[in-house]
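Need tokens for this chain, all 343 residues.
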Amino acid sequence: MEPVFLRACRGQSVEHVPVWFMRQAGRSLPEYRALRGTGSILDAIADPALACEVTMQPVRRYGVDAAILFSDIVVPYHAIGFGVDVVPGRGPVIAQPFANRSDLERLRDLTGVDIAHVTSTVDLVIEQLAPADTPLIGFAGAPFTVASYLVEGAPTRDFAVIKGLMHADPQLFDQLLERLVSITVTFLRAQIAHGARAVQLFDSWAGSLTRDEYRRFALPATQRVLEGISDLDVPTLLFGVGTGELLELMSSAGSTVMGIDWHVDLDEGRRRVGAKPVQGNLDPARCLSGVELGVDAAREVITRAGREVGHVFNLGHGVLPGTDPAVLEAIVRVVHDEGRAGV
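Here are the structure tokens for all 343 residues:
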């Protein structure tokens, strides 16, 4: 029988509601800070032994029902030499942002050699997860979100440059996303080939789009990514921030599970995506005020999740750096003990 996380993703009955946390590995854990020091995150990801240990830390501490690979959505683009760095406190920064057709040549095909450090990490993690049969989640950035970094050159709040490109030269934008689809499919298939048993596609900035923009400029590429791995029979999860008004459209992309951020009540999110299993959606900020308030907030999500099959408990975005690990430990316990969706 498959682990509870995978069964919940497939809309099957479970012994307890599964739980994991986006960004469960990282800055909120003292053992992570002690291990990492102040080096570059891309250097840490390039070290399979270190990346494996970081991936495993929250599994040991929290008893979550899935591990997620310690990596970053820009890793494939750093690997092909596009000129990406991850600046502490700022995020991905592009030395020479994508601006014209000649830049398409810089987005060459991703090869196994390019990401050998990632697949080596997956191999090490799978070996450590095997005794407890805990699944590993691989992941990648959805094409629109990756494009927003490559075109803007850095994180943005207004998305003016990428929206200018979308509307001024939609043909070039389509060509850009087609290159990103190919790279993303290769990246996900490699993780799955080495043992990842589910994958999540992060479309973090899809919420910046109108419904028409999402339908025209983001949805087709996301569909092609999911179609590109559909023969591998692993659950796929799709997640974005501020996407409440897009949930019905996103749900049509073809993922197995739809991630719901904290802006939409979970019962309403379940209604919007129909019969599809859902993941979410505790507000990460509710975890910053101590165990009691964090557990109260988790119980609110559990209540809204109801009893129907198909709920994976998670936050509505990533763990915030100031989160006390004791809060997440308590939330895992209460979800396992009191969750009723599919139990």
